Amino acid sequence: MKIKIPLPLVLILVAVGGILTFKQISNPVDRHGKAAYAHTEGILACGPRPADSEGLKKAQQYISKQLAQHGWSTMSQAVVRNTPLGEKTFVNLIARYNVDKLETLDDLKTINTTGILSAHLDSKLIPGIPNFLGADDAASACALIIELAAELGKNHPELAKQLEIVFFDGEEAFGENITPSDGLYGSRAYALSLYDRQPKPRFGIVLDMIGHKNLKIAVPADTDRTLYKALLDAASSKGYEKHYGIAQGSIIDDHLYLNKAGVPTIDIIGADFNHTHWWHQSGDDLDLISAESLTISYHTTMAMLIELLSK
Ligand SMILES: [Zn+2]
């Protein structure tokens, strides 16, 4: 028996088939997303990571060990700052690929740097939530950087050499919100080291909340246009453009002091984070993170890095 399907129905079936196929291929998980997910677990296993804590030290050791396996050396930049809770020591972890000596900030001046890739490792100290983990704020971003660094070291060593990686401490404020005198302690201290770099790094990338299972990124409205275009081009080249957009206004995050130091820096950050039920709440745990989203963030950031570092 031959069934004749009317043309409009054929078109509908084709369209539905197309959508289904698109859905199936739009959220693949690959080994990079899986690795970044495993590193998120590894960082969270260190416990809460507020500034000056054992958990933060453990997480820094975890990261240094992972990076060392792929040719990256690490150094610490420690600064003491006054906070609403008294004096605290903040420690940024800085990584460079294939260098002989990396002990002081002066050593960094001798190494050519085209770009900076960064995220904050500290988790917020929140009264009433003693075990706050900050899985997406921002362990997932640090975990993704470990995987990006591993792949760059293995397959793009010439690009890896031009990249400086920084895991900031003290992004989070001790008060409820970041103010001019509370929060961004680590990135502010690190940015001071950029003023006398010659030549200055050409760009910076900050990753924050890039592993959420419903990935939606909105960069600050005042983002450098060239970097925003580089992000959209990178996302489009992988078919991920629907996950990326721009926010209504500016955002206070670690990119601020890098921009002030003359290094145009894009903050690739989860959209409307401050209107979610999990931001700075106990819900910011591993359940929020997906290997699918980390796969998307991995390929978009990698494509962007390859493009910007190859110029
Ligand atoms: Zn936060």
Give an overview in words:
The protein has 311 residues and is an alpha/beta fold. The protein has one domain (29-310): Zn peptidases (Aminopeptidase), CATH 3.40.630.10. The protein contains ten helices and eight strands. It has helices spanning 7-26, 31-44, 54-68, 105-109, 135-155, 157-160, 185-192, 225-237, 255-260, 291-310, and strands at 72-83, 86-97, 115-120, 163-168, 203-208, 217-219, 244-246, 265-269. It has a six-stranded mixed sheet with strand order 1-2-4-3-5-8, with helices on both faces. It has a two-stranded parallel sheet with strand order 6-7. A hairpin with a 2-residue loop joins β1 and β2. α2 crosses α5 (135-155), α5 (135-155) crosses α10 (291-310) and α8 crosses α10. It is globular. The termini are far apart. The model is unreliable at 1-5 and 16-24 (pLDDT under 50).
General form: globular
DSSP, total strands = 8
The CATH topology: Aminopeptidase
Question: What is the CATH homologous superfamily assignment?
Answer: Zn peptidases
Strands of the widest sheet, in order across it, are 1-2-4-3-5-8
Instruction: Report the helical percentage.
Output: 40-55%
Looking at the overall shape, the CATH architecture is: 3-Layer(aba) Sandwich
Query: Which percent range describes the beta-strand content?
Result: 15-25%
Could you tell me which ligands this complex binds, including any ions or cofactors? zinc ion
Mind summarizing the main beta sheet?
6 strands, mixed
Radius of gyration: 20 Å
Mind telling me the CATH class? Answer: Alpha Beta
Distance between the termini: 62 Å
* Helix and strand sequence: HHHEEHEHHEHEEHEHEH
- Structural class assignment: alpha/beta
Would you identify the regions where 5 or more consecutive residues have pLDDT less than 50? 1-5, 16-24
* Mean residue pLDDT: 93
Our count of helices gives 10
